[in-house]
Q: What sequence folds into this?
């Protein structure tokens, strides 16, 4: 058979004579080699550069790692028949091989060693190069090789693909031609297939690990003996220890007080805690925690523990609760020199973490300054928690500011609750109307500000804080200190930087500027409307006392805007006595408009109440109630429109 192959090869090389006995894929390969001007008298493997080999090995390190056990297994099967096992990359560069000692000389003669290139262009028809060229398993025996150097060889190879179907290498079994075995072709093909499956499994594991590690939460998988089976890379960071040391953690002690055995392993229930402090050695970690049973069929084989640091939980809570500053210094509209100086000063102190006390009458815009300072600071991405101290009942003050532990008092939420200071972690807390803080709470507030730590009601654990404090008052706190209703030491702790906002009546150049700003905003909100002030209205604004400051001005502009039926806003009552009469009249007018709307909807829908309600976007119960309230007679409909 080998002699006949040689005759067919000679006839093709010397006389371009082909035979039907030549395998189609062999003949196609010979023709490719001829077009590429491959020297049929050569076939010596060309070595790639050391850098190119290193690059290839690095690129295909996963392929090499997964293929090696399979190569060793195959070598054990074929070593008695004098075969070597070879792995190449997608270019045909040998990146790993196991050489049979009995054919070592063959390898040396052909330079069939690690780092040599075995594609068709380099060494002609061969199982490695041809399988890569055709993307099919190939067996080449003796003179089927295009180059005469290889006629003493037989080789079987199959391409290896990744999960996308791309060729990333080949698996080859090579030996002496006289030792050719039919089964080596099958072994090569099945080995390549096994490697592909291993690659898919490995890719799945890598994907899972990547996903596992990309999760912000710390994840630990334990077995029924509380031994750690797996964890993601967030756990060492969470515990602030080396990964190897995490494995020494006694999870049963860490979860002390949580009956995992009973609830997870026996009852097969999921457990969750929104706010928990768990011990680890001398450290304590504040976190939310969930534990879920891990099943194998119906049996619980372990549990998955998910931990999230409290600071991440608090950040999410703050987002959901809308704890955000919306105003910046660009929101402060002024032509007053003192106000401009105040803004410049506020911008400078924004870069610090100093406590700020903002003083001024009600309605001057103290919170606007507080939000602007926050948004100008390095804490701008953190929460902005605003608290109106005058709106908190005295008995709830401590729990509102400092939080409480589970069971600390009757009505306390299970698991406890963080206070506003904790929710402001990483950001700013704004204590408006600070003068309203009860005297008995002030020492604890002072201690929190001095230590930057907080202890919840009913707790003993000090939680570190990272919060900037801005407070505001419309009171004269010095007088309050003199009267003994406000602690002097707390006043000095809050009043590191003082901003005193002048009232609107003392900066009259801002009255019309602010009024026109509010008017412009209202026109933009009501697309297509372009209302403007009359001179008389502007004069009245300038003459008004503005005891309610900017807040009062904004309310009056809004009222005048919506009460004016014409584009020119001519006037609006500025005093409470006049306003009462206007409001009564407006109420009557609104009732007339509402009655007329219902009548028109009923007319349009031929007295069909349900259709009328749908058009008016009100419920069935509401329209019947309105019909009764306005004495609308559905049976005498002509009178409705007279």
A:
């Amino acid at each position: 058979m080998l002699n006949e192959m040689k005759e067919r090869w000679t006839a093709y090389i010397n006389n371009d004579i082909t035979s039907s006995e030549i395998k189609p894929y062999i003949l196609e390969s010979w023709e490719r080699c001829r077009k590429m001007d491959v020297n049929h008298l050569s076939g010596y493997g060309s070595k790639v550069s050391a850098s190119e080999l290193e690059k290839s090995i690095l690129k295909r390190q996963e392929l090499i790692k997964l293929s090696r056990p399979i190569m060793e297994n195959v070598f054990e099967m074929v070593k008695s028949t004098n075969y070597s096992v070879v792995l190449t990359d997608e270019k045909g560069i040998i990146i790993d091989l196991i050489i049979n000692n009995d054919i070592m000389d063959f390898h040396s003669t052909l330079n069939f060693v690690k780092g040599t290139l075995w594609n068709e262009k380099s060494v002609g028809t061969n199982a490695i190069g041809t399988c890569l060229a055709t993307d099919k398993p190939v067996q080449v025996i003796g003179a089927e090789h295009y180059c005469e150097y290889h006629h003493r060889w037989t080789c079987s190879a199959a391409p290896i693909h990744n999960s996308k179907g791309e060729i990333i290498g080949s698996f080859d079994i090579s030996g002496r031609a006289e030792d050719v075995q039919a089964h080596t072709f099958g072994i090569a093909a099945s080995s390549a297939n096994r490697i592909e499956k291993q690659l898919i499994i490995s890719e799945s594991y890598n994907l899972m690990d990547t996903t596992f590690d990309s999760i912000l939460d710390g994840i630990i998988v334990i077995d029924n003996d509380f031994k750690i089976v797996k964890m993601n890379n967030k756990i060492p960071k969470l515990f602030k220890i080396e990964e190897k040391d995490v494995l020494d953690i006694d999870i049963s002690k860490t979860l002390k007080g949580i009956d995992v055995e009973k609830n997870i392993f026996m009852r097969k229930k999921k457990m969750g805690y929104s706010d928990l402090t768990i011990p680890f050695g001398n450290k304590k970690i504040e976190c939310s925690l969930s534990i879920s049973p891990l099943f194998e069929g119906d049996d619980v084989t372990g549990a998955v523990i998910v931990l999230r640091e409290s600071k991440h939980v608090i950040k999410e809570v703050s987002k959901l609760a809308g704890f955000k500053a919306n105003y910046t210094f660009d929101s402060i509209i002024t032509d007053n020199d003192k106000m401009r100086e105040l803004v410049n000063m506020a911008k400078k102190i924004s870069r610090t973490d100093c406590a700020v006390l903002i003083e001024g009458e009600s309605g001057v815009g103290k919170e606007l300054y507080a939000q602007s300072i926050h948004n100008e600071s390095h804490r701008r991405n953190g929460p902005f928690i605003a608290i109106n101290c005058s709106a908190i009942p005295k008995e709830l003050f401590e729990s509102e500011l400092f939080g409480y532990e589970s069971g600390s008092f009757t009505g306390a939420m299970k698991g406890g609750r963080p206070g506003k200071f904790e929710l402001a972690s990483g950001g700013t807390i704004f204590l408006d109307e600070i003068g309203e803080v009860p005297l008995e709470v002030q020492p604890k507030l002072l201690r929190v500000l001095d230590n930057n730590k907080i202890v919840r009601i009913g707790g003993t654990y000090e939680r570190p804080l990272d919060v900037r404090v801005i407070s505001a008052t419309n009171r004269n706190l010095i007088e309050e200190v003199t009267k003994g209703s406000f602690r002097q030491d707390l006043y000095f702790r809050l009043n590191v930087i003082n901003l005193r906002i002048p009232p609107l009546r003392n900066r009259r150049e801002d009255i019309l500027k602010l009024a026109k700003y509010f008017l412009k905003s209202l026109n933009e909100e009501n697309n297509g409307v372009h209302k403007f002030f009359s001179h008389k209205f502007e004069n009245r604004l300038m003459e008004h006392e503005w005891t309610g400051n900017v807040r009062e001005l904004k309310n009056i502009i809004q009222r005048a805007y919506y009460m004016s039926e014409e584009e020119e806003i001519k006037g609006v009552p500025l005093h409470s006595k006049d306003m009462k009469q206007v409001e009564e009249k407006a109420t009557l007018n609104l009732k007339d408009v509402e009655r007329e709307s219902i009548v028109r909807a009923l007319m349009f829908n031929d007295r069909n109440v349900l259709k009328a309600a749908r058009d008016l976007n009100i419920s069935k119960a509401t329209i019947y109630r309105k019909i009764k309230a306005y004495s609308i007679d559905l049976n005498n409909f002509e009178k409705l429109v007279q």
